[in-house]
Design a protein that fits this description.
Chains A, B: Its cofactor is pyridoxal 5'-phosphate. The structure is a homodimer. The longest helix of chain A is centred in the C-terminal third of the chain and has 27 residues, at 326-352. By secondary structure, chain A is of the alpha/beta class. Chain A is globular and about 65 Å long. Chain A folds into two domains: 3-10 and 61-67 and 93-316, Aspartate Aminotransferase, domain 2 (3-Layer(aba) Sandwich); 32-59 and 339-448, Aspartate Aminotransferase, domain 1. The first copy, chain A, starts with a strand and ends with a helix. Chain A contains 15 helices and 14 strands. Helix content of chain A is 40%, strand content 11%.
């Protein structure tokens, strides 16, 4: 059946092109490798506000996650009195589930059975719907799971639908190593003013999700839901609705028929553990024969990294009230999330103070996606250099300020509009300076090209 | 250009078949999921001698590797006086090379630059030939690198050559998600009595490698060399020759033209750190345009897991004489390797004592691949059950003894011969019991079917 990839695939010609051997889709490329060399710069540091890499921007890891992982990797630490007992209990429980009681053994290809059970319990609590460990495949981060599943459920001739703009992992998922079928972008979120979360940082409403599910049902589509930002909701009145929960609340025929895969990751949320490469996907209503092929395909690379599986376990099964690690865990988690919420508001405020920059509320995720007005002479100058106008702006910004953001044309955007994506991750003080620098640069740029 | 995958691809019809959506090649499947259920067994434990998973079989991790990794993941341990200073220095050096000084940040897609430099220095010492960090791509284990490269250099219409028998990672590398071209097995190693290392545990001679390189040159093939067992050489007179070293010793035109990729991993050798999923590939003489596509393709899954990159760094740049960790590191490394050498001899001795079992010297790697004579009535019984004769034998072995080995038909073997692959990894005492049990079972089996 064809594939619906909401919040994922893009129609942007900048993103999908064909090359003779495998089909490779460039990401919304970091621009800094293109920074001109050998000339003095008016800045001392490149600020990479282009990628959702929280710890690279100074976010501190959550202690409990790291303690459990370090204990599993170096069990001599079980004798260390400064590490709390619940972390040690967790490490013992996880090691007992590993081959030879070692994090150095292969696990089953879909992951450690115990961790899959813990994920299933987490999903059951979250959605109030039964979740089976057998439907859960641990992965090397969400992007890995999307690529693997994309290889199973898509074929060259399939039509793929997506919300636009979007983060191009999904574009890649549906295309690498398969013959290219058409990829159609859906601007409807955009028009209805509830957009996908990355890059547009808006939180999908329950109604929007229902509409996507109905569309998938009518068109017999396989639904892929990227839910890695489920903890990153900041705006009042916004809430995370999982596709699975909505699907089951809608009831038959939807809940019995619509094939769904959802993805989660340890790289975002309050964890920001990008380097560990951990995550999972849950499949719902998947054809058993396809599921068997999926199981075979995940076995090709043997198993997901064990340290990432360990971190994932601590995330889906965190310390509970009364546990020695509970207070610190909650304090650290809240500190990260409230700092992000503060920076989301700050971003929106400073941008909207600047004439010509329009920034919707950053309801969730880790990014702002402001629209920028560009004067006709800037469009002409971009055309002369054979660049998209927002790419031209972003390159100038980088050369003059060292601030690296991603042009909106990397994600797909409505014809004739221009955006850039910037993370809200830099530490508050740095972010404030950065936003003000960007705002002044924009004003100067507009003056220069008017 | 077509692809030569020595020591990798197999012609076995058991291994490659086509399914409508992606092309998936089953591995030499562990048989234990097929163990009959609900009937009492004449054994208390399934012994998984089917997979090279050292730590699952009780091998202890190397202390230095785990200390450095635990320090990087939980830097509070830098204050722990019981961890040696060189491990701490290493951890500090690696953390300084990570974004935000954290193992939780994404690294560059081909890996941490510092680790790539350390790998390049390791290769230069090993081969006496220049190695460039830019030619090194860190990976999520060797199988991951093989799959990714396979997607770049193969196309449906390419002919792929391989040594036979072989471990099927390569078969998978060349086939998933690409249209299937012919895969041709080369039995020449077999005939010349210098076989690829896994499963046939023989060490390729320098002459054999030269012949493969000449063949690749003449046929304009891309050469993929799986060198994950480079530390696992036990037999006197055997030595590891890297394809790169031999290629450069042969000089022009070979050294200037033949495109080569070689793979290494932290899962084998003396490390056995399978769970961390770490490794690298080095590409030599690769067409720059293809290399650029490879770089894009590895960026799809963002970066290899950082804990695996850390372990890899300790492996390519181990403690040196005079360092506080040196003595323990060398003692642990030698203990693992000499135990494996001892078990290699033990395996060969016990098998060759059994009439009808023929086991060549286990020169390297972690496996024996004995040939077994099977009586005509066993062949008929297997045929009646629509099984390969060695599959039939291995299933009976599993049901009666709990010993899980892999039938030779999973790797490809000369028509009319039968083998199985068994690891030499169980602890010595357990291995001895296991070998004797297997030998008695074989004798009984032959009697039963004669």
């Amino acid at each position: 059946s064809p594939v619906l990839v909401p919040c994922l695939l893009s129609l942007s010609p900048f993103l999908s092109f064909l090359i003779p051997v495998p089909i490779i889709v460039p990401c919304p490329c970091p621009l800094f490798p293109f920074l001109s060399r050998g000339v003095p710069k008016p800045f001392t540091e490149v600020i990479k506000a282009n990628i959702g890499d929280a710890q690279a921007m100074g976010q501190k890891p959550i202690t409990f996650l790291r303690q459990v992982t370090a204990l599993c990797l170096y069990p001599e630490l079980l004798a260390n009195p400064s590490i709390p007992e619940d972390a040690k209990d967790r490490a013992r429980r996880l090691l007992a589930a590993c081959g030879g009681h070692s994090a150095g053994a292969y696990t089953a290809s879909p992951g450690i059975e115990l961790v899959r059970q813990d994920v299933a319990r987490f999903l059951q609590r979250r959605d109030g719907v039964t979740a089976e460990p057998g439907d859960i495949f641990l992965s090397t981060g969400a992007s890995d799971a999307i690529v693997v599943l994309g290889g199973v459920v898509t074929q060259g001739t399939h039509t793929r639908w997506t919300g636009t703009p979007q983060y191009p992992t999904g574009t890649r998922a549906a295309t690498p190593n398969t013959l290219p079928g058409p990829v159609l972008g859906l601007y409807w979120y955009w028009e209805w003013d509830h957009d996908p979360q990355n890059p547009t940082r808006q939180v999908q409403s329950r109604q929007c999700i229902e509409d996507v599910i109905k569309f998938a049902y009518e068109e017999k589509l396989f639904l892929m839901a990227d839910e890695v930002y489920q903890d990153n909701i900041y705006a009042e009145g916004s809430a995370f609705h999982s596709f699975k929960k909505v699907l089951f609340e809608m009831g038959p025929p939807y809940s019995e028929v619509v094939e769904l895969a959802s993805f989660h990751s340890i790289s975002k949320g309050f964890m920001g553990e990008c380097g560990f490469r951990g995550g999972y996907m849950e499949v719902v209503n998947m054809d058993p024969a396809v599921k068997q092929q999926l199981a075979k395909l995940v076995s090709v690379r043997l198993c997901p990294p064990v340290p990432g599986q360990i971190v994932l376990d601590t995330v889906v099964s965190p310390p509970q009230p009364g546990d020695p690690s509970y207070d610190l865990f909650m304090a650290e988690k809240q500190a990260v999330l409230s700092s992000l919420a503060h920076k989301a508001r700050l971003t929106q405020e400073i941008f909207n103070r600047t004439p010509g920059i329009h920034c919707n509320p950053v309801q969730g995720a880790m990014y702002s996606f402001p629209r920028i007005e560009l004067p006709p002479r800037a469009l002409a100058a971009a055309k002369a250099q054979d660049q998209a106008p927002d790419m031209f702006f972003c390159m100038k910004l980088l050369e003059e300020t060292g601030i690296c953001v991603v042009p909106g044309s990397g994600f797909g955007q409505r014809e004739g509009t221009f955006h850039f994506r910037m993370t809200i991750l830099p530490p508050t003080e740095k972010l404030q300076v950065l936003l003000e620098k960007l705002s002044s640069f924009y004003t100067k740029f507009v003056k220069e090209y008017s």
